[in-house]
Amino acid sequence: MNWYPNFWTHVTQFQKKKDLVLKCEAFAQESNRLQAQMDNATWQAKRLSNNNASGLNQVDRLTCQLKEKSDQVLKLQPV
């Protein structure tokens, strides 16, 4: 006897939504980490005693990583 015919459909949809939320949370953590690295690299680049080109290259690299992560999140499809 199947007391709730759509039960497994709802469970599957819930799991997909949960997976999307976890991916978004992981993106938020990763973007916060990259932003902190960018802030640090920017601060280092502004210091006169440091090699400005090196710090700015690091900021550029981190910016590209952050854009790649945001592109990955934008590719997530709503359930």
TrEMBL record:
In terms of superkingdom, the source organism counts as Eukaryota
Record's protein name: Uncharacterized protein
Taxonomic lineage: Eukaryota, Metazoa, Spiralia, Lophotrochozoa, Mollusca
